[in-house]
Amino acid sequence: MANVIVQHNELKELVVKKLTKAGLSKEHASVVADVLVHADLRGVSSHGVLRTEHYVKRITEGGLNPNPKFSVIETGPCSAIFDGDDGMGHVITKEAMDYAIELADKKGIGMLTVVNSSHCGALSYFVEQAAQKNKIGIVMTHTDKIVVPFGGAEPFFGTNPIAFGFPAKKHRPIILDMATSNVAFGKILHAREEGKEIPADWGVDENGVPTTNPHKVAALLPFAGPKGYGLGMVVDIFSGILAGAAFGTHITKMYGEYNKMRKLGHFVCAIDPSVFTDVNSFLENIDRMIEEIHSVKPAKGFQQVMVPGEPEQLREEVRLKEGVPITETVYQYLVKE
């Protein structure tokens, strides 16, 4: 299937138009569009503008609150609970990270659980938000069941991603953003959209058997077997049980049940390095680490060893200039009046 190349500013405008037409305020629609285009710029199309149609459907069917009233309860010197009032998860998580950064400015660490939220998109956006303020960012979120536990033939946990952002002095921040499944489910959707086969270690069919057909995927596999499974559980405890939200099989589905609020939880943290070490030496040592990793002899087939998030950052630089490729069907949906 052919891709359409769209400039990032135009892409953002198209998403804002769709979301405001569905009833979202321009301010909130702009944040959501920013997070979605951020993902597409980085080449993480699974979390990009292809999700717009889903959000519109959920807003129009009553499973998202287009006019939420956010509230925060501080529970300790550097901890708080952020209530998103069932709004757009992208806006909620951005505001929660802003709050965590403020707490970190005052107390050195800001740590929040987020309740009554919804799908928040690529976590890289929010940890980068912290890194831009010279803070270490940590974000976790859970999702509805789609990943089989190690040794299981049916799903229990979600893709349950976790992300870290580390600021540097002269280099771009180190950004690690990963699902605890082998891939995010959005990559399955993207493969369906493009009519491509998938690797056999991405997902299983309804019988728990690995498949290369994206249309037959009933559940995903955890990355690295028991390690990904264990980390997925940890993420659900932090963003689900610790937040007083649902966990595992009890989470409202993303696809289907469009009239139900999802009540997702997130865990958001910002750390000021200066509470542990000299901030300048920290930033300089992150730079040094990046440069020393770059100088590691590359294996056959590789030009250079990179740090986490770097391939996406390089792709973003290209796409900011040359435009963002999106599938024809997604483009047609966005431009349709």
TrEMBL record:
Pfam families: Ldh_2. SUPFAM superfamilies: L-sulfolactate dehydrogenase-like. InterPro entries: Mal/L-sulf/L-lact_DH-like_ah, Mal/L-sulf/L-lact_DH-like_NADP, Mal/L-sulfo/L-lacto_DH-like_sf, Malate/L-lactate_DH-like. Keywords: Oxidoreductase. The keyword Oxidoreductase applies. The keyword tRNA-binding does not apply. GO terms for molecular function: oxidoreductase activity. Belongs to the LDH2/MDH2 oxidoreductase family. PANTHER family: MALATE DEHYDROGENASE, OXIDOREDUCTASE-RELATED. NCBIfam families: PRK15025.1 (NF011599). This is Ureidoglycolate dehydrogenase. It comes from Aeribacillus pallidus. The lineage of its organism: Bacteria, Bacillati, Bacillota, Bacilli, Bacillales.
